[in-house]
Each structure stands twice: as structure tokens, then as C-alpha cells.
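Per-record layout

source: Acipenser ruthenus
name: hypoxia-inducible factor-proline dioxygenase
length: 118
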Amino acid sequence: MVACYPGNGTGYVKHVDNPNADGRCVTCIYYLNKNWDAKENGGILKIYPEGKSYVADVEPIFDRLLFFWSDRRNPHEVQPAYATRYAITVWYFDVEERAQAKKRFRDLTGKFPKRFSK
């Protein structure tokens, strides 16, 4: 996924990438923002590790690569960005969990979702 926040205070609410066992197990984010100043531009990724008393603040600086678990262990959000903010996100999947998610979808709908392969 390629993300572009337009820089008008846009962020992303606190969430978990894999809340319902869709197969995503590791989230990888690569930042593409040269000369980023988090004090001026915002756009910090806040990670709220489950069971911990601290929050991890990750500045979206150029050439930074971030990995974290995609499930409930790492709820996270993007704080408002006041400059155009770019990131590429890739998810690593657990093959068995992914197959079970596809089967659940087929059983509920009788078809394959477009973004799932057969």
C-alpha cells in the first residue's frame, strides 16, 4: 500500500491492522519523507504496545524501515500531518491464517473477494 497524507492536518485514527485474523502478521512501513521535521510537520506514528505503560513515537523520516506485529499487540495511529507525508506499507502473511480467512469469506458469500487470489 502506498500512503500519501496531503498535509492539511490529515491523520489516521487508532487501529489494529489485523483485528479479525485476516492473515497479516507483520506490518512493514518504509518512509519516503526527506527533510522531515516532526515538530513542524507532525505525522508521527504512535504505537501503543499492548500491556505496556509507554507509547512509541516514530517520526516518518526518510529511509526509515519499521516492523511491528499486525495484530492487537500494536494498536497505532498517525498523528495529523501538516506537510505531504509518504509511506509504503507491506504486510507479511501467515499462510494458514490467510487460508482460513479466505475460507470464512467464501463460506459467508459463496465467492472469492477480488483482492484474494483463488
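summary: The chain has one domain: 2-110. Strands lie at 2-5, 10-15, 24-31, 45-47, 56-58, 65-69, 76-81, 85-93.
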